Structure formats: C-alpha cells, structure tokens
Amino acid sequence: MISSAFPAHAQSAQADGDKSTNLGGVTVTDTAINEGSYKTDRLDSLKATAPLVDTPRSITVIPAQVLKDTASTTLTEALRTIPGITMGAGEGGNPLGDRPFIRGFDSQNSLYLDGVRDIGASTRETFDVASIEVVKGSDGVTNGSGNAGGSINIISKRPTTERFIQAEGSYGSDDYKRATVDINQPLNDFIGVRLNAMYHDQGVAGRGPVYQKRWGVAPSITFGLNGPTSLTFDYYHLHTTELPDGGIPYTYTIGNEPAGVTQVGPARHFTTVDGQTIDVPRNAFYGLVDRDFRKTNVNEATIRFQHEFDNGFTIRNVSRYSRTYQAYLWTMPDDSQGNVGNTGQVWRRVNQRYGYYEGLTNQTELSGKFKTGGLKHSITGSLEYNWQQSAYGSFVSNAATGTAIATGSTINPRCNADTVARYYCTSVANPNPYDPWVSYTSDTSTIPTPIVKSLPKTQTLSHAGNYSASLFDTVTVTDWLLFNLGGRYDRFSTSASPALAATATTSRNWINKKNNLWTYQAGVVVKPMANGSIYFSTSRSAIPPGSFLSQGSEDNTLTTANIDPNTFKVQKTTSYEVGTKWDLFDNNLALTLDLFQTRTANARTTNPDGTLSYLGTKRVRGVELSYNGNITPEWNVFGGYVYMPSKVLDAGLTATTVNGVTLTAPAAATGHPFPNTPKYSFTTFTNYNVTHKLTVGGGVIYMGKVYGGFSDQRTIQNGAVVVTKTRATYVPDYWRFDANASYQLTDQIGLRLNALNLTNKRYFDQAYPTHYAHQAAGRTVIGTLSVRY
Q1: How many Å apart are CA 251 and CA 631, to the nearest integer?
Q2: pLDDT of residue 108
C-alpha cells in the first residue's frame, strides 16, 4: 500500500529520465517520483555525480509526499521537518521572510530554485514545489558564494508524460482557507503543459488579528517531452500580503535584570521592578492593525534546454530572470530602555523598508560517464554567469527631509503618559492592536501626515556580477572504492552605495570589491556492500563581502561608511564529515549517520577605532542521524536527530572606557554557543496505511534551547577589564506533536485531516538577539478535499 491520499500516480519531482525512486519494492523510472515515497535516491542537479548513498555529504530531501502529509505550505513549515535547522528572527533586511539557519549558520544567502541562486527577500510557497534538497556542511563548490552551513535547493514541478488534474480545497481553524490546482496535460508525444495555481488566506492560531494571504500561478510548457532534446519555458508569480507578527518582548534588559538572573526569555509570567505581577496572554499582539503591513511580489521566468547525446552525455542550459519586491512596516515590541521589566509597558518600535532584488542567471552543465584505464568517471562540468542588483529605501513622514515616522523614538523615557496617550507605547499584558494611532509630522506635533516612500537618493544600492567554472567527478576505482571530487572558481564583483541623506547635495559614493574564490569538495567512499557506504569528506565555502546584496542580515557588508574597501576580506568556512549511509528494506529506507565539524575563519569584527579585523572564529561540531523512506510498503518514516554543541571561539574585542582610560577585552559572545543553534533537536514523521483506503500518521518535533544573543556590562578595575553583569536572551526548548489521517472515498476523491501542534503548546520558534522572540501558532486543524482525474 502507498501512504497517500490518492492512488499511486507518478508525479514529477525530477525532470531527468535516469532519475529513479524505490517504493515498496517498485522502481519508478519515468520522469516521475511516486507521490507516496518518502525516499529520494539522487539529487536533481547534474552536479550530483552519484546516487545519495554514494555521495559523501549529509543530504536530506523533503519529497512532495512529506510536504502533503505535514501540511507544509511554506518553505519555513517544510524545513521544520529536518532537525538541525532553525529559523532566525530579524530586525531589518529580511526580518519576516525566509531566514533558515543550517547547523548554526545563516543560510538565507544559500537558497536556490532549480539550482539557480534565489536570495530575493520573500516567503517561499510550496504549491509549485516537487521536492526540497538540503545539503549540510560547507557547500560553496556547488552553487557559489555563501553556503557556510549548507544550502537549500527547491525543485519546481515540470511537465511530465502523465495526464492528470489534481485539485485540493482546505478549510480549517482560525478561518484557514486554501485552494490549489495542478494540471498536467501532454498535448501529444512532443509537447506537454503544466499549470499550478494557489490561493491561501488564514489567521494564525493564538496570535490575535495576525493574518496571511497569498496567491500564485506557475505555468510551464515543454517541447520534446519524450525525446532526447527538450526545451521548457516556465513562469512563476507569487503575491503575498499579511499583518506581520512582531512576537513577544523579552522580560529584562541587562540594566534591570534581577540579581542572579543571567538568561532572559520572552515575557510570559514575571514581576516588574515596580512590583507588578504580569501575565502575558497568548494572543498578545503589540502591532497596529491600521498601520502594519507586509507585501511581496515575486516574478521569475526560466528557459531550460536539455539534450542527451547518444554517447551518454547530457548538456543542460538554464537561463532565468527574477525580480522580487518587498515592502513592510511592522511593529517590534522593543525592550531596549527596560520598560518591560520596569513598568510593564513596551515601546512599539517601527521597522520598515521597501525595495527590490533583480537577477539574471545563465548556467550550462555537461555531464556524462566514461572510463580512463580501469577507472570509471561520472563527471559534470559547469559554466555560470550571474548578475544581480538590489535597492532598498525607507518609509518616512516627509520625503524631502527624510523625517522618520513619528513613533516616540526622540522621547526619553520612551514610555510615559504622553507616549502612551499617543499609542507609541502599550501595556505588555493588555495591548490593543486597534488603538487609533495617528501618523504625525513629529513625535510632539499635532499635525497629521501621510507615510510615504523616501527619495531615490536615500536608497542603498548593491550590484554584483559573478563568472564561475566548476568540475565534479565521482571516480569509481573498484566496486568498493570511490572518490568524490569537486572544484570551483568564482570571479565575484560587488559594488555598493550607502544611502544619502534626503537633503544631501553630494554625489553617491560607490564601494567596489572583486574577489577570486576557490572552493572545493573531496571525499572517499568505501562500499562494504552494494546498498551501503562509509565515507569521509571535506569541503570549503567562501563568502565575499557584500554577497547578500542587502537581502538579509550580513556581517560582512560593503555599505559600512568610511572604511577602505581593501580591508574587506573573504570569510572562509571549512567542513569535515565522516559517516555511513545504508539503503535498507530492499532499498526502500535510507539511513545516514555522520559526525561533522564546521569552522569559520575571518569572521568580521569592528575595532574600537572603527577599523575592521578579520579574526573571529566560530565552530560547530556534532552528530546527526537521519532516516527516510518505507520500513514496509504500508509504513513511511521521515526524520532524524542532531546533537551539535557550538562555540564562538573568538568574537573579537570590545572597548571599555572609564575615566578616560580605554581598554579592550574579548567580546561578550566569545566562548558562548552560536545564536540560533540548538544543542539537541529531533524530528520524526510517519504514516501508516491501515487499509487500502485509510492512512493515519503524525509527527514529533523537539527543539532544544535556542539562544538569541549575549551581552554584558563592564568596568575597569586595577588596570583590567572586569565583567560585572552578563545577559543571554533565549527561547526555551519545546516538544510539538502533529497528527494526520486520510481516507480515499473513491479512486478520484480523497479526504485528509491535519492537526498541527495538537496539544496547543505555547512555544517560541525564533529568537532575536535583543527585544523580542517570535511565538509560534497554536493548534491548527485543517480539513482537505482532494480530487484527481
């Protein structure tokens, strides 16, 4: 039996005819992966020159069936199924979009769509997703700059030889509404078309007035559906609008934390300095319904050409143009002046931005197999060109002067009777998101003014160009010994121009930087049996300055003013991994166990005099166990366990000045764990076919304590720096349980029920270094009707 709400129809998750998947002892080799499978045998990219069992890297593929069974409609929801990945909270850049951390490293610069870089700030959907490939460990050799902790490659749906129409409609708690349609129609043996479309509208359980709305469409057409030569055109559009959630503030700052308190979590139940006992309700929302918003627009057009030669070689060329627009104004519950812990009030700090990201990419790959003497080679060579640019500005109350939106930021203390009366501050325990806030020309003015976009001169601009060449080879020496090798050269050029003041009369200043990047991967694979391997590998990533193009939080940005660009350096990350992989139960279940270390050198710090030093060092070590596939034809499993203690070995120096004397000492983060890096994490999801019509399943997620950041207070005593107070922000560990069931009414009609966060656990899934933590959704129950012809 197949664990699916539908009969066993083949659906494309890989576009190449030589890709195959095992399911219940059956191998599916069309251009398709069976919907019921939890196991994938190899990656979509031609750069993957061996099956996963023979690839000396830790790799997890989330197939379409896992997305369906777990009701994962966004990339964030999908990635929760993999241990060792957390989602980071933000303040500027991309605070509300996808910001995954893989093994403790920010990977928002390591997102790809069908192997093409896709870093535009957005919230990615799954309606047009066939699978999600997650490579862990340094992976710059595969796709270029970034990838310190790993990379995420989203594989889109493409036309296949099967004719079907699949439609789903969902309704659930908190007014959850979703509709999707997937139409795949081969017009003849040569031409195939496919259309995916989606509409989504929901509230968020336990989060007051928060809502999320989006719609998308993704048509594609393939010429050469069955032949050795094919040409595919596809277009993707996604529009989102939402009331963003700023989460819950932390209780105390380092200035007012009670004696003995060194770790501070999000405000739930606490006592203020002035003696109030505060209970923060689950639905406490500190934003303003009439002011806050976030909108994104994503447009992508792709041309994909592929030809299979008679000698077994394949050439593929992919060209893509993409443009992403994002605008937001959202409220962060700010604790920076101690108002939360002192008086039980919180400042409604405004975070805002508008901007776009634009990119043009062309990739050509040639792959094939051949022999040299007694050695067998599976090889891929690649040439790539990538052009990108971005710009972002601010929302202001006066474009001509660049005057900031009036929120009480110029008033000290921030929370007093006047700021409460203007709704700049609100109660931690009883906020009203419908307060009649008014935009005034200044914090003390009584003249209303509209919120407008800042002038073009106030935008921060970034441009980047990249030429690269790479070569990958899996060398089979004997049936039991393989070598996996890869090397890449990148010529990366970046230019950035910091924003000018609205009243500035000077010309823009451009900071230019060029870097030659060399990255590699190397591994040895020993195969004691055909279905298993033991491996060792090492790999290198390189992150050049400015490579995020202002699309996220970047610690090596080029837009730092008044610094010689020659002082900017490339940050380098090296990973080592030893492990074993086995395909069990007639090759239907993949099991992987590995030990790993990832270490970053040249992490940037700013010296007390404003100069830069590249002396920071970060290290994470750990062990990971993962499993995915079918234990029996009726029983699917997917998940794993990760133990990864992390440590910031050197975070640079911090200056302390007392009575005119300045001394430096190691920064507060030195010696502490990475932010966004749980020591323990565990996930498991499973489905079981009770009968040929009824399937039941569920999931468990455990996430250990996650730190947001570290700070301290210092003084100078006897000619030395002495730390007098320390503070760490964190979100506590949690268990979450999900359940699902499906029933096939007929061959064409199925029902599915998902209960997410079944026990209605109140937990926090993102930790920002200061100010706030993001609270996850409460219990959400979703019913889905599926129709397939």
Answers
A1: 47
A2: 82
Question: What is the Cα–Cα distance from 747 to 594, expressed in whole angstroms?
Answer: 42
Assigned token pair, 289: 């319904």
Task: Compute φ and ψ for 456, nearest 5 degrees.
Answer: -55, -35
Radius of gyration of the chain (CA): 26
Q: What is the 3-state composition of the chain as percent helix, strand, coil, each rounded to the nearest 5?
A: 5, 55, 40
What contacts 335, CB < 8 A, 6 or more positions away?
Answer: 249, 250, 251, 252, 253, 341, 346, 347, 770, 771, 772
Which two tokens mark 86?
Answer: 């957390």
Residue 89: phi and psi, rounded to 5, are: -90, 160
- DSSP state, residue 266: B
C-alpha pair distances (Å), 512 with each of 458, 461, 743: 19, 12, 59
C-alpha 682 chain-centroid distance: 18
CB atoms within 10 A of CB 16: 17
Give the pLDDT confidence of 559-582 residue by residue, as tens digits: 765 667 777 888 888 999 999 999
Q: What's the count of helices (H) and strands (E) in the chain, helices before strands?
A: 5, 48
Count of beta carbons in the 10 Å neighbourhood of residue 307: 15
- DSSP secondary structure letters along 274-312: TS-EEE--TT---S-TTT-EEEEEEEEEEEEEEEE-TTS
Q: Are 189 and 230 in contact (CB under 8 A)?
A: no
pLDDT digits (tens, 9 = 90+) for 271-305: 999 999 999 999 999 999 999 999 999 999 999 99
Q: CB-based burial of residue 78 (10 Å sphere; 0-12 exposed, 13-18 middle, 19+ buried)?
A: buried
Is 33's pLDDT higher than 50?
Answer: no
Measured distance CA(358)–CA(342) in Å, rounded: 45
- What residues have CB less than 8 Å from 657, skipping those under 6 apart? none
**Could you tell me where the beta strands, DSSP code E, fall in 434-584?**
452-453, 460-478, 481-497, 511-526, 532-543, 571-584
Task: Express each pLDDT in 693-716 by its tens digit.
Answer: 999 999 999 999 999 989 899 999
Q: What is the spatial distance between Cα 30 and Cα 16, in angstroms, rounded to a whole number?
A: 8
Largest CA distance in the chain: 85
3-class secondary-structure state, position 76: helix
Is the peptide bond preceding residue 431 cis, with omega within 30 degrees of 0? no
- Assign 669 a pLDDT band (cuts: 50, 70, 90): confident
For residues 709 and 760, what is the distance between their CA atoms, to the nearest angstrom?
28
Residue 584's closest CA among 630, 538, 653? 630
Cα(296)–Cα(29) distance, integer angstroms: 38
Q: Where is 199: in which H helix or E strand?
A: strand 191-203
Residue 455 backbone phi and psi in degrees, to 5: -70, 155
For residue 668, give the nearest of 644, 646, 650 by alpha carbon: 650
Cα separation, 770 vs 336, in Å, equals: 8
Closest CA to 133 of 144, 146, 143, 123: 143
Q: Take residue 382 and report the two structure tokens written for it.
A: 């690649």
Burial of 471 (0-12, 13-18, 19+ CB in 10 A): middle
Question: 766: which 2 tokens?
Answer: 């993102």
Question: Phi and psi (nearest 5°) for 627?
Answer: -150, 145
Match 């489905």 to its residue by tokens.
687
79 secondary structure, DSSP code: H
* Residue 470 burial by Cβ neighbours in a 10 Å radius (0-12, 13-18, 19+): buried
- Predicted confidence (pLDDT) at residue 6 exceeds the cutoff of 50: no
- Rounded to a whole number of angstroms, the distance between the first and last alpha carbons of the chain is 20
* Entry pTM: 0.91
Q: Which residues contact 302 (CB under 8 A, 6 or more apart)?
A: 114, 116, 232, 233, 234, 235, 236, 318, 319, 320
Quote the DSSP letter at residue 536. E
Per DSSP bridges, beta strands 734-744 and 749-756 are antiparallel
